[in-house]
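Standup notes
- DV: blocked on the single-chain target, sequence here:
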Amino acid sequence: MNSVTTDCCVAEEDDCSDSEVLCLMRVGKNSDWLRLFENAEVTIGRGVEVTHQLLSSTCPLMISRLHCSFRQREDGQWTVTDKKSLNGVWVNGERIPAEQPHLLRLGDSIQLGVPLLGTKVEFDYILIRRPLKDIKPYLVKGHREDSKAAHTPKKFKRKLAVEEVEPSTSKHKLYRCSSADKPFAKPCPLSPLKARQQLSHTQPEETVSSIQVNEEEQPVSDGSSSAWDLNNLLMYSQNILLLRKQVNDTQRQVESLEGEPRQADPLRGEHIRELQAQLEALRVKMHRMETLERSFSETKRQLEEQKTQQQEELMKKQLEEALQEQKKVIDELALSRKGFEEIISAKNKELEVTKEEKEKARAQKEEVVTQVTEVLENELQCIICSELFIEAVILNCAHSFCCYCIKQWRNKKDECPICRQAIQSQTRCLALDNCIDRMVENLSLDMKARRQTLITERKGMSSHHRRGDGDPR
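- DV (later): unblocked, structure below
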């Protein structure tokens, strides 16, 4: 949007900058605020003879030549009047009747025109009262603050175009374009990047001015500008459709005028030339819009590729982080495994030591058993029967023999079989018998059975001999 305040505006400037003034604050922007001058009628429209001139960047005919006017009543309250505008004046969301003053209050929402498909209202204001020094940086540029104006504004006669004098079959007035509107038509706003790309395809004077205007309104950073371009791509496509409709309507008007008889209207030739000029301007504008749409599509594709690349880089980064985490876990498991292996090795060594000790104990026990066996065989064995003593007896010479063996020996000779000394006495040795019985318990089962068999046989033989010869011994 381009806002221009004419030099011939009717207003009275306050000399003191601390005084509070009434103004229309532009919603969402810190510029292009419209001041309402006291004791004067403030007019708004796209024409040149108005207090504040508004030019739409999306639809040139959105604002009428004389769209509305603001006036202060004698009681100090302000009113707004719709001057039969095409798209109306909306106060707090409701359209006000034409040519009827509507009372305003501070904080009221004032919208000029209607929103296009998928967009918001371009000219959206809120009525506020602030000190002049606070709002001065935000007021529209180009207004001479030291100018004095008359209390009664000038009224200019409106020149009607041919299509307004004579009825035509064209479309709605919103889609018409007269020769008087051509100097004020502006292309759709370009981002700084797209404006520089468009520089080689359009006329230098128009492109440079468009770039300067849009660089003031749009962010400079590439990321925000690209996002803004993509958000407005749908709006540009709709504008192309509107321009195509205008081209078709203008072309039909030209064909209809060319088909009429030449005597019908003396201004027909001038009207045809004017429509042809309009048609050519619309075609040039539509070509620019199509070029801009193609450039937007290319930018969108590049942004999608960039986004895909960023996603791939993000996924690679996440994968690398996951691999690093996995490597850390593997390292921790390796350390744990090493610790467990050391513990198991220590336990194995302890088991080996215990096994060696058991083997040593077993060998010692076997050695003791062997020694005991040797002792039994050498020291506790009867020399007569070569068996362990059974009911051991000790002779007067201190030699020991089995009771049964020495009895049988004395039947032949009454002397010691070892030292040949005469046997004078023999005595049972219970301690020796108990010792032998204890040692026999640790011997094998075969030796135990063999000893038990010998004991039983000798007892039976001793009983038989007693019954046979009656020997008291």
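- Follow-up: The radius of gyration is 64 Å.
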